[in-house]
Amino acid sequence: MFSVIFLFPLLAFSVTGLPVEVRDSPITLPITSRLAFSNITDILRHDEARLATFGEYSTHGRRDDAVYTHPKVPLLNADLGDTFWGYTVKVFIGDPPITYNLILDSASATTWIGGNIPFVGDSGEDTDEAVAVNYRYGSFEGKISVDDIYFSKKIVVREMEFGVTFTPWRNGADGVLGIGPRSSGLGAVRYSPEKTLPTIIDLMHQQGTIRRSVVGILFRPMTARTVNRGELTFGGSNPKMYYKEIKYTDITTTGPSSRYWGINQKISYGPGNRSPVILEYAAGIVDCGTTFLYLAIGAYDRYKDATGGVVNPANGLLQISLDQYNALRDLNFHIGSYIYRLIPNAQIWPRSLNERIGGGVDDIYLVVKALEAGAGYDFIIGFVFLQRFYTVFDSGRKQVGFAPNIFNQRESN
Question: What are phi and psi of 112, to 5 degrees?
């Protein structure tokens, strides 16, 4: 499904070099992030638009179309003008090949192009199937085409079905590369609501390019640097980028989280295995397109009380003093049989970026936000967590895996 709001952060990833192989079949692509926001309002509007759409459904809006529905998917554009969030991956399509920078979206299974650079399908095949998705602040409509998608001369996905739009996007992105589970693509094919298009990960596995239907992601903690580098690995993970071993947990069976990379977990605050619980076991979503860590209001209030944070009226974030920061404890994520600890420094906004959110140079803001939770999702794990933990999405086994990445203990904020 066409998902688009990458709040993300404020970041955009583009491939900057040739893929390298890790171990046997995994294929690793270098990616880079680019800061692209000017104030906290941009970020929060992006996040709020994206979160509001999880689990929502609507018809296409025409009486004769009422026989099918599509989920309202997370929005990328959100009428934010030239603001551009997200991670982009460079692909090549056509003969001669045209370069497209596609936003990496873990909440969408569908790949589509044409948002900035028009698609010329001379080398592929057009179909009569239409794709249409309603977003909270707009919509996407187009058709399905079939063509080869290249990451390099040697790495190619043959005869992939993807959407093509002829409506330009204001933010300059060329489209979306969906790495969500296939279920997150339900409803995208206009008159076949039960049909889903094969994901790029599924096709790479079916065609023998990779041995497992897996994608591993390394993000770096955001800083004031103009460019940060990370990497995307198809078919496995890169063990050089994380410590210990990756621990996996099954995708939750609780909807709507089950349609995405949804998991069950509980969250506690403080040292030791018996630290006070602020969120009992519940379902939620792991999403690289959301910036902050969102907790259901009850859990947020317990975290707020534990840290002593006070809402700053100018930017809406919890603010703490230096003494309170020195007393800050680990935030613990109990996922499966393992506990992932988010150190105090990882719980605060990068102080080098304070001026961009209207804060003072030495102000300290927490990155936990309140979530107007609905049935089936009590948390959203966003970029502030994922930049500290190597993350693996396994569509074959229907699991999500984490391991502390090489930046896990970095005091970068």
Answer: -150, 160
Residue of 47, 174, 202, 287 with catalytic role: 287
Whether 287 is catalytic = yes
pTM for this prediction: 0.86
Per-residue H/E/C for 224-264: CCCEEEEEEEECCCCHHHECCCCEEEECCCCCCHHHCCEEE
Tens digit of each residue's pLDDT, the chain (413 residues) = 333 333 334 444 344 444 443 334 789 887 766 665 666 777 777 777 778 777 553 322 222 222 223 334 444 444 444 444 567 788 999 888 899 888 888 888 888 888 778 887 666 677 767 776 544 434 567 888 899 999 988 899 999 888 888 777 666 678 888 898 877 655 555 555 666 778 899 999 999 999 999 999 998 888 766 566 789 999 999 999 999 899 999 999 998 899 899 999 999 999 877 889 999 999 999 998 888 999 999 999 999 999 999 999 988 999 999 999 999 999 999 999 999 999 999 999 999 888 888 888 899 999 999 998 667 889 999 999 999 999 999 999 999 999 999 999 998 88
Map tokens 């947990």 to a residue: 249
How many CB atoms lie under 10 A from the CB of residue 409?
14
Tokens 């210990």, located at residue: 244
Active site residue 105: yes
Catalytic residue among 42, 47, 105, 174: 105
* CB 249 within 8 Å of CB 263: yes
């803001």: which residue's tokens?
A: 365
Are 289 and 8 a contacting pair, CB within 8 Å? yes
Give yes or no for a contact between 396 and 205, defined as CB atoms under 8 angstroms apart: yes
